Amino acid sequence: MIKTDLSTFTCANFNRGASAIREALWLIVRDLLFLRFPFGAYPLKRVVLRWFGAKVGNGVVIKPGAKITFPWKLEVNDYAWIGEESWIINLDHVSIGANACISQRAVLCTGNHDYSKSTFNLLTKSITVEDGAWIASNAWVGPGVTVGSHAILTAGSVATKHLEPYSIYQGNPAKKIRARIIK
Question: Cys staple from 92: which of 16, 110, 122, 131, with CB 3.0 to 4.6 Å?
Fold first, then answer.
């Protein structure tokens, strides 16, 4: 029987999207400054993300402790919110729509591993959170998922498949529990 052999793992084919120097500079800025900017420093955070290649719209709110792996693979549209201690593990492109909310400690993770290979190859797929969607506290969105317009992923839930627009999802794995009606 063939077994997993992590000593053979390599990221040689993974495109980090930036030079090692740019990535190192981002890690320094992120860990020493960006994560610690206080509430209200949202314009400064938007500027810093743009310096590092993110596409960031007007009025975007990024709370303290929000962690972003690669800003050059991030697009955040107008008036979106990214909550405290959320983590955007964007090894691939992540797009967050206008007026979408990524709540505190939510995770958007674009990476996974091919468990069928002994080398445990890295797999990545983009994530799209459409306009008006809400990823609630401690929820997790996996690689390749599209969260439809105005959909909700409730607190602590796990999305591994696309979420339909104007729908509320709950659980692990997330299942549609009802329609979202906005008054």
Answer: 110
159 SS3 class: strand
**CB-CB contact of 154 with 140 (8 Å):** no
Print the domain residue range for 112. 18-179
Inform me whether the pLDDT recorded for 43 exceeds 90. Answer: yes
Return the CATH number at 30. Answer: 2.160.10.10
Q: What is the pLDDT of residues 55-69, one digit of tens each?
A: 999 999 999 999 999
Closest by Cα among 71, 34, 40, 39 to 56: 71
pTM: 0.95
Name the DSSP letter for residue 71: G
Q: Which amino acid is at 132?
A: G
- pLDDT score of 12: 81
Instruction: Let me know if residue 30 belongs to a domain.
Output: yes
Cβ distance 65 to 41 under 8 Å? no
Q: Work out how many domains the chain is built from and give that number.
A: 1
Strand partners, 134: 101, 152
Residue 5 inside a domain? The answer is no
Element (H, E) at 1: none
What one-letter code names the amino acid at 93? Answer: H
Please check whether residue 36 is in contact with residue 17, taking contact to mean a CB–CB distance below 8 angstroms.
no
Task: Check: CB of residue 99 under 8 Å from CB of residue 57.
Answer: no
